[in-house]
Predict the structure of Phosphoinositide phospholipase C.
Amino acid sequence: MDANVLEQFEKLFQSRIDKLKKDLEETYSTRIESLEEEIRDLRHQLDAAQSYSSRSSPSVSDLNDLALPANVADFQLDPPDPVIRKWSAGQHHVSSPSLIPSLLLQRVSSKVQRIWPLGSSSNMDPLQSTSGPLTVRRNSGMSRLSAETGQLSTPNQIVIPESMIQGITFLRVTHKKKVQRVLTLDEKTGVLSWNNKPSSQLSLDRICEIYAGEDARNYREEFKVSSELANRWATIIHQRRGETKLRALHLVIATQKEFDTLINCLVQLVAFRREVMSGLAQAGPRFVDVYWTKSNGDDRKLNFENVEKLSKQLHIHCSKQYIRKLFNEADTDKSEWLNFDEFQEFVRLLKRRTDILEIFKALAPSGTLSLNEFNRFMLDVQKQAWSDENIERVFKKFSPSGTNLIGPDEFAQLLATSQYFPATAEENRDLSRPLSEYWISSSHNTYLVGRQVADGSSVESYIRALQDGCRCLEIDCWDGVSGPIVYHGNSIARLTGSIDFNDVIYAVLKYAFISSPYPLILSLEVHCNETNQTKMVSSLKNILGDSLITQQIYPSQFSLPSPDELKHKILIKVKSSIKENPFDSFSSSNSNSSSTYDASDEGMVVTRSLIAIKKSKPVSKVIPALAELGVYLSAIRFRNFSLPQSKSVTHCFSFSEKNLKSKIRDPEFLQQLSKHNKKYLTRVYPSMFKITSKNFNPIPFWRLGVQMVALNWQKNDIGMQINHAFHSSKVGYVLKPEWMRPNPFPIPVPSGRIKLSIEIISAQQLPRPRELKADDILSPYVTLEVYGLGDDLVPHWKTPEVFDNGFNPTWNYECEVVLDERDLEFACLRFSVATADFAFATYTAKVARMNQGYRHLPLQDYQGEDYVFSSLFIRFDKIRA
């Protein structure tokens, strides 16, 4: 063998070894941490048992400490402190008060009120450690905090009850155990903790959602917790610093009073922190106070260099001349320093929105906006049908005290508040129809973290997909040394690495319903021998337990069950055990279809002297015990639509993208497939050998009624951006329109025409792309594309550049497009912000879900993460043409 080839082999294998080591460390770190926590708990209980065993008369509370309640419903503490707990069984006896934790004794001390210290700790500054554009996970927010518009308020000072400092007793609920803990808040760092370990702490700044009451019902039901505890159950979704993974903390608070204290305090604190972090759009007096303190330290004034530095911290990317102009305007005494009042004026000038001022002048020629004028604006322009009570509440919140009028500054702040003017509306949440009547958010090669070929496999990819609302995961199963493993079997020289099958299933158990309570589908591609298939069956049943569907919920069903009926359930899609010709398929992905292999996809070029692709082994026959788990999704090969097995309600066809595109050229097949998909399930996946994991446009397949259009989630390209727009709620199920669902009477396809009018007005606080050199200027422009109009038409527009202004560029660029009404269910608008030759921010939305009127669109980077400070300001209207 050629020496160069050998050298390349050695480098290749060494790279794979290094990658495998890294993957193993990441995969098992979480499990090791969990085991360490259990060991600590067991040691604590052992120490307690040894202590209590020496007593002559252990109390009821002693026994309770040793034996955790078997059911959460048994957890009742009223009042919360063990020293004064009442028991229906008899008297409460404490034999040794010295053993009562000092923390609990402190809780009966005087209730001292503490004020949140603004800017007193470096941990409080969200900008201090920010080296690049600040991003957070997509759609993270406190959207579940208020059931009614305008209810959330944040006072000028956040009062922290003493009980939050000393500790609130709660029951922590996980899949493995239910354990009593004490939750405390460090008022200096803003960290909640319930143990001394770093893994038992969370920062207020990393809280993504707080679910309580009815909004937390799905989580409570997942753990089969009694509805009697609904009023004291809360779920906090959060992230750890440096991680993208979402985590859930489930709590049952001891008393209703402490529950109300905890939730109210957390809501106000998190809302306060977000206001400070929200940039200039909603900057109020507290914003000025915080950044004045941060910027000047012990001094009582700021010079131009201080202000310029602060501007960079706030992601204000514009010319130095512009900052100097505003500084000079604010510096009324021409001292080259800004005192506090002048700094307030500087911030006001920065916030000044000339684009919104023009809108305001047209609405309120008198210079102020009355309640009646605001009401007309809401109905005629924004097309938001709020109740009179809500309109009045919001109006009063933004009008200066005692005036009952809104000025231009208040109007600009109100218009920038996504709580009142969201870019998109909620989708239809009717989840009572059969599964086949929904589009289901689906993933292909879920285990990959990069390209389809040659990049690694990771359980993290499954976690990320579940957090983003994916409801159909692919698991490609092969024989490992000691059991089934997951990897991309036909990848070149198996470069993708592997994951233990059990690790994947444990991750599924933990994260399956963190974003959506509706059924999760595991699409198994089985290449294992019978022994490992038997292990797979055992793992699925033992790990997933009652969550796994093993039999039909209603025997002799003539249609599939609904997502509502399958909440918190996991379904298996697996090949039928019917004997098939093993040479009919080529790859793991098309083992359930009739697709053909075409190495021309993606212009694949491989050096044959270095790496050769072995012929695929025959597809393994699925053993009956595993095939039986495909209760509602028994995967069969497509032959034609007339066979009896093609009319079974539980069957599922799979096609590759390339194969299905070829088949639908036949008009008869196209018509039959559309009819078939009204009642039965179909899955489409990317063609083999797409080395870069590039995705296709899913819209043409959604038009055919295909429920599971599987995409490569590791690639946030146009296809995935459209998919995220389609499934923006993260529920994972979108109801098809009536004319695409079975009906005893024909439903006509909409035949009208709709005109869309879009005005791209301005952008706010655009991030500076990392690709720009230090001396490069940021001169942004916006492109707009419309997808989903049929016939592969993609109308597009481009605004002019705005020279050297990434802070508040203004375009006032108008465009129109007319589309068929039936296209409203599929059409998506894609906005991209670019400079020079590359785009750096984007936003995609489904047209049918876009709210009309003036809207601030949240911008994302090309990894799908939100830019915290940045937005695109547009006006959007749709009327019948």
In short: Residues 48-156, 450-456, 580-618 have pLDDT under 50 and may be disordered.
